[in-house]
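Give me the fold.
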Amino acid sequence: MKKIYLGAFVSIFSVGMSVAQVVESPYAFDDTKIENLAPFPTNEATATSKALGVTFWTDDFSTPANWVADNDNQTAPFGWNVGSTVNSWWPAFSGGINSTSGGNFAEVYNGDYNVGDQAIDVIYTLTSASPIDVMALAGTDQVTLTFEQYGALFNDGQKVYVSTDNSSWTEVFTNNDRTPFIGNNPSAVYGNPETATANIASAISASNGGNPSQVWIRFEWTSRFPSGQTANDWTTFGWFIDDIALTTNADNDMTAESSVWGSVGLNYHQIPLSQQTAIEFTTNARNNGIATQTDVQLNVDVTGAATYSGSSPAGVSIAAGDYDSLVVATPFTPSGLGTYNVTWGVSQNEVDDIPTDNDNSDITFDVTNFTYARDRGAQEGTFSNQGDEFVLGSYYDIFANDNIYSIDIQIASNAVAGSIIEAKIYSLDPSATSIDNLFQLEDQSVEYTLTSSDVGSMINLDLAGNGNAGFPLLAGETYFVAVSSDGDNGSSEGATIGTTADGIPQTCFVYLPTASNPGWYYTLNTPMVRMNLDPASNNVGLEEQNQLFGAEVFPNPATDNVSVRYIMGVTSEVTIKVTDITGKVVVEFEEGTQEAGSHTLNVDSSSFAEGVYYVTMASGNSILTKKVVKK
């Protein structure tokens, strides 16, 4: 199955969820391997609460002079602040961090989102003023950094570094893999307080070129999208730090981190019977202890509709500070309808001193008759383009030939009745040279107007192109399943869609033609947009089949070329014309007789003056009009 994973990106805020823009180079048309979904961390550890060894150094910010803030030429309160005053603009953080020591804390601030005064292109750092002699205090370089934190992530980068020369810095911790706080997902807010840990042994050890007799600690904040952005891209809800400590490592401490599960790189929380296939499990096992750990294995147990136990190959030893990627030797294949519960984690021959961090988060998924879902089931967030146009959806892999008849969409509780949406399915063109040509519209629903009873509910929209026959899905192919809206020019929240957390980067996308940087973005949350393979879910009648019922224009805004994609319900003649804002016809195309199905017309727009144009498609009594901007 072919997917495209793209590199550099920027971000915008206006969509109500965290997104990052897809840039059109480079492209990689490779089979997706599960171990390639995310790079293995070098010295990072996820936030976790646990007891460690002997604490030999602490700082609670009671002496602000112990820390040096570099606030990138910004004036107070912008940047890092040490004291007892809370600066965050967000009311939920008005009480600050409930740290163990109380009193002073460190907080980063970058303006008020409601005012729009955020500083752009800034990096704020807070660094220990004097080096810490770890060897003199602990007698070993096998140590862990801990600190208490509170806050929430948006587009900001929250990282921690250490150095043994106050010049070269090694990243040892990041919050950037956390779920962004977007919409209504309070679970994304950090605990108050939350203890974060990072094993810094490999970063400071002499064997790796370091000097554990002089160690500096640095906390850094910046946006993850550092150039050419608007103020809202530089929003921070707040990041509070207190009670920093260095502790000797336990003798034996394996930690499970960076876990991935799924089929060909994607995980599904609802799997239709026809698409059951092998599910792989992999995790990084990191040795956060002092002693080498032997016979380290990943173990997976499945209960519920079927039982299964699997392990990674035996005989793996991991030295102190190192990690290894463990993959269960025999993948698990579901065996029919029902709920499957997965518990998994790492084990070793030695008795683990801190066993609470050996397990990955439990997993639950269902095999259904017809529903195919990427989302986790219960809505955790929302997507809104504030009434403007969008296309939002996710990749789905097909493992056996089938048909899709309709698409299920979760409409959020703050959606506006009267908003118009469409359900769409796209194939992926492996020969595409731009992201705009990657997604090929194959089928869609007729326009649907949301009612008050739809708000807060899962609705079902029929795919109309092939009538009751459904759209054929081919084994080995990947499809993009989406919901779209032409919007109401931003006069309301419009069509607001439910989301869940833990989206896989570069597999969920949104198209935003009205953004400050128009184009395709990948989202960090999973849209609740599902395939429905149930023939009974489709109720397309003759009315839908006898019309030109679906169309879109890409790219939008356009430059030298624009593609007009439209879907015919039945064979009929088609005329397409482009008019300017005054109604003057700029160009007209007689497409002739077009068969039922999806079609594309490429228009040379290089001679068009900059401005707004309307593309009108007509077939018999069916007329569709789409707006496009020429830049």
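The chain has four domains: 2-31+372-537, 55-248, 256-369, 548-630.
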